[in-house]
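REQUEST FORM: STRUCTURE PREDICTION
Request ID: SP-0412
Submitted by: Lab K.M.
Chain count: 1
Length (residues): 74
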Amino acid sequence: MKYSDFAIGGEFVTTSGTWRCTDIGTRTVIAIRVSDGEDASWFRGPPYAVAEMVFDENDLDGCWQDQAACDADQ
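STATUS: Completed
RESULT:
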């Protein structure tokens, strides 16, 4: 994905699961993993009951807009 493809509240996929974007910085994307099946209330925030992960410009090549795009690229 390109940096411009991310939107706060939007979801994207990596090989480790599905993520929801919670913030966009100058060169980073912050997200929470939503594919672990925890209680849906954990994903309401901020603050969130799950850890946020920072994706920098080096990580964006490993992000896809959906699972089909991820599978096609593998």
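NOTES: The mean pLDDT is 92.
Reviewed by: T.R.
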